[in-house]
Structure formats: structure tokens, C-alpha cells
Specification:
By secondary structure, the protein is of the alpha/beta class. The strands form four sheets. It has a five-stranded parallel beta sheet with strand order 2-1-3-4-5, sandwiched between helices. Strands 10-9-8-12-11 form a five-stranded antiparallel beta sheet, with helices on one face. It has a three-stranded antiparallel beta sheet with strand order 13-14-15, with no helix packed on it. The longest helix has 18 residues, at about 115-130. It is globular and about 60 Å long. The relative contact order is 0.09. The protein has seven helices and 15 strands. Strand 3, helix 3 and strand 4 (about 85-90) form a beta-alpha-beta unit.
């Protein structure tokens, strides 16, 4: 499911955007959207700062009370949020600034189906191309998206793979073999001899432990913190 955020301080604009997204979703069943509305930039930024929410696509008005949309976009990029951003505005004045924050599109109001739907088409195509999978044996073969893997834990000669939805898949293979399957993706790193961790799912870490975004804590093996800290910072600095 894709998370789409709408941020505009005018209720009528939020209603219009939501209605267009619902219509688009009815016509494109492959686009499974969850829509979240924000009546101001600071409300949205606060939820993202606290780790409560992260959109895949943001439809962001530029002219809002309190904080411009371009200012909010810069803060998002500074936080390492790489979601697609589509600016909505009544003027082309901020077009250059929009592309400085790697905006996907810049749409001038009034927004119509003819303007918005091609943007959503490109978004779905890009997201589909970004999907990466691994095949796991679980009552047959199960195709799992890599971003859904939180971490993997060695248990003797098998590997316990913990997924974002709470499912745990046991694989009869060595840690080395599993890491070989995942190591081509920068987000997966080995932590000690027992864990492979997806850096995208770490909420915080210190010298003793890391907490994953599913609420689980993993205690760090002695001497592993410095290397992991460097990998974590490098991953997010290069992703931003």
C-alpha cells in the first residue's frame, strides 16, 4: 500500500485532491493508496519527525500560513525523507526552488484530473520499478519485498526472517547464504554473527542496542556499534 499525503491549508483544496485520488484509485486498481490529510506543514512535519508517519508521495501546497511548502520540503530532505513531492501552487514563482529539493512535479492550480493523473501514472511506474523481491520457502514459494524485511536472526542452522507485518519466516540455510542473497542491497548489513539488519527499519541505536520500527530491540554484540553507526549514517546521507 502506498502512503499519499495531502498538505494544504484550504479545506476545499484537500477535499478536491482527495476526491481526485479516490477516482484515480477506482480506475487503477493496481494503485492501492492510503490517503492522509494535513491542514498545515508543521502538523505534517511533526508526525514525520516523531516517526509516526512517512509518505511515499506528498502533494504539497506552496502558499500556506505559517510555513511555505518549499520550506517544509527542505526540512523533509534534511531529515532524509526521499518521498516524491508534487508542489501545488497558484504561481510559477517558486519553480526553481521546487527542483532544488528534487520535486517530482510542479502543478499550477486549479488542479484537474488531466494535470494530476499523469503524475500519478509516473509515480506508480516508478514505485513498481523500485520494488525488489526475494523468494522464500514458506509452504511453497513466497515472494517478499525487500523493504518488508525488518531483520534476520540466525537460529542454529536456520534463519528467522522477521517481516514488517509481524510474520516470521524460517529458512533452512546458513547466514552466509542468506546474506549472499541480500548483500547487493545497501540497506542490509550484518551485525555480529547472528543478525542481518535492514537499516531502513532502525528507529534508533546506541552503543548497547537498536530499536526497530516494529518495536523490537536487538542488543548489539560487543564491538559492533562503531561500524554499525558508520553504516547507518552513510546509508542515510547517501539516500538523502
Amino acid at each position: 500500500m502506498y502512503q499519499i499525503a495531502l498538505c494544504d491549508d484550504e479545506l476545499a483544496e484537500l477535499d478536491k485532491l482527495e476526491n481526485m485520488l479516490v477516482l484515480y484509485g477506482m480506475r487503477h486498481t493496481e494503485g492501492n493508496f492510503s490517503i492522509k490529510r494535513f491542514a498545515g506543514a508543521e502538523q505534517m512535519l511533526q508526525q514525520i519527525r516523531e516517526g509516526e508517519y512517512e509518505p511515499d508521495l506528498l502533494l504539497l501546497d506552496i502558499y500556506m500560513h505559517g510555513k511555505l511548502g518549499t520550506e517544509a520540503a527542505r526540512e523533509l530532505r534534511d531529515m532524509g525523507i526521499s518521498c516524491g513531492i508534487v508542489f501545488l501552487t497558484s504561481s510559477k514563482e517558486h519553480a526553481l526552488e521546487a527542483f532544488r529539493v528534487d520535486a517530482a512535479q510542479y502543478l499550477v492550480k486549479p488542479i484537474s484530473d488531466e494535470k494530476l493523473f499523469p503524475v500519478l501514472d509516473r509515480f506508480l511506474k516508478d514505485m513498481e520499478e523500485k520494488k525488489r523481491y526475494i523468494l522464500l520457502k514458506a509452504n511453497g514459494l513466497k515472494k517478499v519485498e525487500l523493504h518488508d524485511i525488518v531483520y534476520c536472526e540466525a537460529q542454529r542452522n536456520s534463519q528467522n526472517i522477521i517481516l514488517a507485518d509481524g510474520m516470521r519466516v524460517i529458512q533452512n540455510m546458513t547466514m552466509a547464504k542468506l546474506y549472499e542473497k541480500l548483500s547487493g542491497n545497501r540497506e542490509f548489513v550484518k551485525v555480529g554473527i547472528s543478525y542481518i539488519v535492514n537499516l531502513e527499519h532502525i528507529n534508533y541505536l546506541n552503543s548497547k542496542e537498536m530499536q526497530m520500527d516494529n518495536g523490537e530491540k536487538i542488543y548489539l554484540p560487543r564491538g559492533s556499534y562503531k561500524k554499525l553507526q558508520g553504516q547507518y549514517l552513510d546509508y542515510y546521507c547517501r539516500r538523502a
